[in-house]
Amino acid sequence: MGNERVAQRAARAVYGSIVALAVILVLDEANSEADEVIAAVVGSVIAATLAEQYAEYIGQVIREGRHLSRAELGLSFRDGAAGMLAALASLIPFVLVELGAIELPTAYDIAPWLGLGVIGAYSLLANRVAGLSRVPNVALTLAALAVGAALIVIKTITH
Asked: CA angle, 132 as apex, 128 and 133 as ends, to 5°?
């Protein structure tokens, strides 16, 4: 898979992860149950992915002055689906709640860290593709993730 495909999937995964985390944080404040979180996050990530893909389609049609081929539409669909699946990683704890494996407050504590993990993994990948060696790559990724981690810690302490 070429860098363009990886880039599209990474962008959609990061964007979807941010949407998922925002929805989870709002639902945490509303004391929502696990099944409500799962439905709301899946719906929100699907809506955001479709909106982003349609906007990108419109942009491409205008830029290129033509409609996309079936093959191009198929690639876009697969990129969106792959990104969406990665974005839904933060739902794993809520599925575990539904299965009776963990308690709901624990799911709310774990979910943001999973989302941050997805974002961090794609940051490491992006930095590697950009040619950074291991130490600068990790340092830059950790610096970027520190802001998200600080927000999670503050929320956990004050909640």
From this structure: 100
Composition of the chain by helix, strand, coil, percent to 5: 85, 0, 15
Between CA 51 and CA 101 the distance in angstroms is: 34
- Whether residue 18 contacts residue 122, with contact meaning beta carbons closer than 8 Å, is answered with no
Q: Give per-residue pLDDT as tens, 124-133.
A: 888 888 888 9
Distance (Å, rounded) from C-alpha 85 to C-alpha 92?
11
Residue where the block lists tokens 């993994």: 121
Could you report the per-residue pLDDT of 26-80, keeping only the tens digit for each? 899 899 999 999 999 999 999 999 999 999 999 999 999 999 999 999 999 998 8
Q: Compute how many other C-beta atoms are within 10 angstroms of the C-beta atom of residue 51.
A: 10
First to last CA, the chain: 43
Which value, in Å, is the radius of gyration of the alpha carbons in the chain? Answer: 17
Residue 40: which of 24, 18, 51 has the closest Cα? 24
* pLDDT at res. 91: 96
Q: What pTM did the predictor assign?
A: 0.84
Q: Which of 122, 153, 127, 152 is nearest to 139 (CA)?
A: 127
